[in-house]
């Protein structure tokens, strides 16, 4: 593989919690333990793990919201935290995130158009923002009429499209989607996953798709890392993980998918 576009090397994150009794030492919680993770130019990779495994913490570090206590984050082969201001600005525009719940990530009092313009102002992006807005709203499959409306006028699936449009506004090179479909109806999950897959291909973006469900990432990524208790326990093409899981945590994720599918099939027959 050529040099990764966005990468973390040996990242550890340890939180110190409140002490439980007066004289007890403060407990320490290792949330990430020497994690290596990378995505190449135009590549779509997945990260899966059960709840509490450290996925969102990894996202926060990969997007620069949190500084790791140990290890490095590199964008275009340069350390993000040691970079001069101009490089940091390129990183902030270049790596955008789509969160789990579009209803809480969009301000209900803001028209969609205003919400799309907001990152352009905070990231100080130059250019014709109105033209850009029309371009991205089309890329996510909505019409410009959406720009004049408020979040409550949309369905969950449409709102997630709007959140994706907002992430696209500054012209990122990497899109990180943290559980982008787990708050959506099963019937529209595939549409949003398809959209992410198409955007990655059509715009040459890199995608980091995060989920607790292996089947969600298997469909749109070529390489998947499994995280458990803050450690990457296994990585490989998703079909290999399905067919020959090596780590017990990967086996548990595969079994969970099969159980859910068997359960759904059972319901359909009942
Ligand atoms: N600021 C913090 N202080 C203390 N503990 C934290 C903090 N942030 C997260 N944690 C803990 O770190 C662990 C990992 O949390 P994280 O949100 O990264 O997991 P996750 O894999 O995203 O889970 P989920 O699938 O539920 O979203 C959890 O045990 C969580 O309680
Ligand atoms: Mg999470």
Automatic annotation (TrEMBL):
Q: GO biological process: any one?
A: transmembrane transport
Q: What GO molecular functions are on record for this protein?
A: ATP binding; ATP hydrolysis activity
- Protein family: Belongs to the ABC transporter superfamily.
Pfam families from the UniProt entry: ABC_tran (PF00005)
* UniProt KW keywords: ATP-binding, Nucleotide-binding, Transport
The record, for InterPro entries, names: AAA+_ATPase (IPR003593), ABC_transp_ATP-bind (IPR050319), ABC_transporter-like_ATP-bd (IPR003439), ABC_transporter-like_CS (IPR017871), P-loop_NTPase (IPR027417)
Report the SUPFAM superfamilies cross-referenced here: P-loop containing nucleoside triphosphate hydrolases
Q: Which residues form the ABC transporter domain?
A: 17-254
Listed Gene3D superfamilies: P-loop containing nucleotide triphosphate hydrolases
Its name, as the record gives it, is ABC transporter ATP-binding protein
Q: Does the keyword DNA repair apply?
A: no
């Amino acid at each position: 593989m050529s040099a990764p576009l966005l990468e973390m090397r040996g990242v550890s994150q340890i939180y110190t919690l409140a002490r439980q009794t007066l004289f007890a030492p403060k407990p320490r919680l290792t949330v990430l333990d020497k994690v290596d993770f990378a995505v190449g130019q135009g590549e779509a990779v997945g990260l899966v793990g059960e709840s509490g495994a450290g996925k969102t913490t990894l996202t926060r570090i990969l997007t620069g919201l949190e500084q790791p206590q140990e290890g490095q984050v590199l964008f275009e082969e340069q350390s993000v935290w040691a970079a001069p201001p101009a490089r940091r600005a390129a990183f902030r525009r270049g790596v955008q995130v789509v969160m789990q719940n579009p209803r809480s990530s969009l301000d209900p009092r803001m028209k969609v158009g205003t919400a799309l313009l907001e990152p352009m102002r905070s990231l100080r992006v130059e250019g014709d923002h109105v033209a850009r807005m029309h371009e991205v709203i089309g890329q996510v499959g909505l019409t410009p009429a959406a720009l004049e409306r408020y979040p409550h006028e949309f369905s969950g699936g449409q709102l997630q499209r709007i959140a994706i449009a907002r992430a696209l506004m500054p012209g990122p090179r990497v899109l990180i989607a943290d559980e982008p479909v787990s708050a959506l109806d099963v019937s529209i999950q595939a549409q949003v996953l398809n959209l992410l897959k198409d955007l990655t291909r059509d715009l040459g973006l890199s995608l980091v798709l995060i989920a607790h469900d292996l089947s969600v990432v298997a469909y749109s990524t070529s390489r998947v890392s499994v995280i458990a208790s803050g450690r990457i326990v296994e990585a490989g093409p998703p079909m290999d993980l399905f067919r020959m899981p090596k780590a017990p945590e990967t086996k548990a994720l595969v079994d969970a998918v099969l159980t859910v599918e068997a359960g759904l099939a059972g319901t359909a027959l009942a």
